[in-house]
Amino acid sequence: MAFLKKLAFIGAGNMSEALIQGILRASLLKADEIIASDVSQDRAAYIQQKTGVAVLPENTQAVKQAETIILAVKPQAMNGVLEELAKLLSPDQLIISIAAGIKTETIEKQIGINKPVIRVMPNTPAMVGCSATAICKGKYASDEHLQWAVKIFEAVGYVAVVNENLMDTVTALSGSGPAYIFTVIESLIDAGVELGLTRDIASGLTIQTVKGAARMMEETKEHPAILKNRVTSPGGTTAAGLHALEKNGLRHAMIEAVTAAKNRAKELG
Ligand SMILES: NC(=O)c1ccc[n+]([C@@H]2O[C@H](COP(=O)([O-])OP(=O)(O)OC[C@H]3O[C@@H](n4cnc5c(N)ncnc54)[C@H](OP(=O)(O)O)[C@@H]3O)[C@@H](O)[C@H]2O)c1
């Protein structure tokens, strides 16, 4: 891989923390091959102490030392950061933005021509090394840039490469997805409690059921309908439960949720 100089994180918040930890855990880079910067001194000290990565107070200092720069500030802080860094950046440096909703074209326009930009949408399970991440490349990024970005984000989970016009859909599906699943989990726990289980037991059984179902899909590679049919015996309990789910429109509700989130992402973008 041609990218030998440091990897810089601009903004050392939650997502950077998860990524740095994942990269170190996966031995993709060593702590001294990573650098970060953050406006908050407390945050800088915390990340430095927790990961061994140097966190500087100046974004410009971090950028000068890096070949790959991950922009990990909130979307509303991106404009200021891009203005600050634009003149410093060269076409030899790869910019990776994880800011939700900000297009590669917007970044390219702000930092000037011919500079490679990659846009990434991870999700919160990155914090536990289990992110679902989508990646797309801008006009000036090469396939090699893309492969390097994929490697970085594979350190915290699954990565899919998509066209940028699908990023709002990704935001609506996997970006917002953990919130949908948390709601499903909460509902199942509440049902268990209503029907006599303690909250602890209902919670343990539900979490393991969701994890187990996801793992079965991952390992068997079967269509979910096949796996569902296998646990649905004629006239049995699961068939009765599934009938109630269909009657109450779970499938429709999920499709509407993702569609509404996509429309909202488009509006905000
Ligand atoms: N968390 C997620 O699940 C998730 C998922 C997908 C995408 N993202 C994207 O990831 C990005 C980071 O999210 P996050 O959750 O990690 O946010 P975060 O925890 O707020 O981290 C951002 C960090 O950057 C610092 N900062 C603010 N302005 C700065 C500047 N001008 N220069 C340097 N540092 C600056 C912040 O300090 P202060 O707090 O003092 O302002 C904070 O420590 C966002 O753009 C978000 O859209 C996050």
Describe what this molecule looks like in 3D:
The protein is α/β, with parallel strands linked by helices and 269 residues long. The chain folds into two domains: 6-163, NAD(P)-binding Rossmann-like Domain (Rossmann fold), CATH 3.40.50.720; 177-268, ProC C-terminal domain-like (ProC C-terminal domain-like fold), CATH 1.10.3730. The chain is 54% helix and 14% strand. It contains twelve helices and eight strands. Strands 3-2-1-4-5-6-7-8 form an eight-stranded mixed β-sheet, sandwiched between helices. Helix 2 (41-51) links the parallel strand 2 and strand 3 (54-56). It is elongated and about 70 Å long. The model has no long low-confidence stretch (mean pLDDT 95). The structure holds NADP nicotinamide-adenine-dinucleotide phosphate. NADP nicotinamide-adenine-dinucleotide phosphate binds at residues 10-16, 37-40, 43, 59, 72-75, 77, 80-81, 98-100, 121-124, 175.
